[in-house]
UniProtKB/TrEMBL annotation:
A GO cellular component entry from the record: membrane
InterPro entries in the cross-refs: Bact_OuterMem_StrucFunc (IPR050330), OmpA-like (IPR006665), OmpA-like_sf (IPR036737)
Gene source species: Falsiroseomonas stagni DSM 19981
Composition bias, Basic and acidic residues: 49-60, 180-196
Protein name: OmpA family protein
Region ranges (Disordered): 49-95, 174-196
Amino acid sequence: MNRISMMAVIFAGGLAGGHAAAQTFEFEGVPTPAEILEILAPEAMPADGFRRAGRSETPRRIVLLPPPTTDRHPQPATPQGREPQAAAPRPNPQPAISFATNFAIGSADLPSGLMPVLRAYGHALQLAPALRLEISGHTDVTGPAAVNEALSLQRADAARRFIQAEFGIDQSRIVPRGAGPREMRGDYPPDAAQQRRIEIRRLQ
């Protein structure tokens, strides 16, 4: 999918009125700040943004992921019965970018492969001072629901703190969100490593 057809999917697929399902994309490799802004906030690209943001001249493979599925797999029950799940915030309908670098089971430590991607987001935030981002943390179905709820938020917050520490971005511009295992990638089993991820989208 080239850049032109990718942008057509975004604008035809669900920004109008926010009624369609959000589109989620995955880059092959580390995106440039320009590529991030083209998906999440094309109008925020500065006038000389392609030069300043290092737009890639090499065609990059960008995958449009299937819509997330919810409650594909029940959470493990305790001896007293299934644990109650806290209501999650309504998913943000803006386009999102997911990452192929995944967290270890039960861990919120940032994988080393994720750090260059987060640095690209830091640069994108510097180029677009009005841009605000939501980082969603996700888990697989391994473990109790309450643990996964907390863990997903810890993953999102770890990414937020990394960007803020490296770039001095104001805290109000990056909002972490814990999705637990509720928004599964439909192209993988519910216990797959690809479920242990973060996704970043524009904050409304």
